[in-house]
Amino acid sequence: MSRTVFTAISLLTLASVAYGQPALSSGWGVSVSTVPSWRVPSGDSVLGKLGEVALSEGDLGLSVEGSDFRIGVVRGKPLGGEWGVSFVRRQFEDGSTQGAILENCFEGFQGTQCNRFGTVYTYQNVTLTGVEANKFIPFGTIKQRLQIGIDLAGGIGAMKGSAEKRSVIFEGQEVTEDVTETEARELLAFDPAVFGRFELGAAVILPRGLKLRVSGGMNFPGVHTASLSVMYFFGRQ
User: How confident is the model at residue 7 (pLDDT cuts 50, 70, 90)?
Assistant: First the structure.
């Protein structure tokens, strides 16, 4: 994945050198974006509750992480905002889990006794591919070199891969454990899957139609600290 991102960014940089001056009016371009790491939050926070809404199973415990790669077309201008449509590939980290095995202990006639019960789903080679539409809205441009703004996006896609389902029931001295395999798409509340972003970002405007943007925020159903986007606007508009 990192080699693909590096190659795409390199091609954009070479293309910008070949074309001339930056576009001053709206025009078409291409974009490449990557999110090195994101996670689905858990707990009683607002973001944690949103994560639980998106996942149909295992809301008692979440440890879901992954990375994103996007490539698409944009319409806009380096000195303003832009909108775009991208192909998205979201890779879930192997070993990510939903659910938990709970333990309930109590004092009985034979001393302390514990019951264990619950279900854990473990991700195995899971990806989400789909299409996303986004719009970057700048608050303003500083000396025609720096922009601060928000990036809004929403998309739809399909989950592929599987998850191991491990269910445990332990009552007294009797343990029942069942391990099966389920399709990863069954772990989401929506099928097809829906996803979206609400990010605060800063963009650096470079010569020859190049724009680099770093942003962070909500990456529904997860959150991320940093997303890197490279845009190139073709020729002089």
Answer: very low
